[in-house]
Amino acid sequence: MVQHEHPDSARVPTGSPVRTCIGCRERALAVDLLRVVVSESGPQGHVLAPDPRRRLPGRGAWLHPVEACLSLAERRRAFGRALRVSGSVDVSEVDHWVRAGHPPRAVPLEQNRHKHS
């Protein structure tokens, strides 16, 4: 019997949420990706916003917080498909977030969950 070696991105702890980056299309732990949502829609299009705390309402798209993945997602027009919106999308807030070098999440995931006593 032949055993296949899985790439590092496929090895994740059991029970940890896994998402796909809309830029590079690689699967990664959700804590390593930045969630992006539509913050407002208007006649000029849709404005996207980073959601590092994963609390904003609406459908989210997931992205590695690096310029290469953001550029790929823009070039592939992946935001519109992932967020199910048509028309133009303004990624300037997300671009600013990524260029500033912020981590993908502002608070540890453990603090982001409700604790039941």
Overall description:
23% of the residues lie in helices and 22% in strands. The chain is an alpha+beta fold and 117 residues long. The longest helix is centred in the middle third of the chain and has 9 residues, at 67-75. It is globular. This is YlxR family protein.
Question: Mean pLDDT across all residues, rounded?
Answer: 84
The fraction of residues in strands falls at: 15-25%
Backbone CA Rg: 16 Å
Which secondary-structure class do the elements indicate? alpha+beta
Number of separate strands: 6
Key phrases:
globular; two-stranded antiparallel ribbon; 4 helices; 6 strands; 4-stranded mixed β-sheet; 117 residues; disordered C terminus; alpha+beta
Q: Layout of helices and strands, plus pairs?
A:
Blueprint: E1 18-20, E2 27-29, E3 34-42, E4 45-50, E5 61-63, H1 67-75, H2 78-83, E6 89-90, H3 92-99, H4 109-112
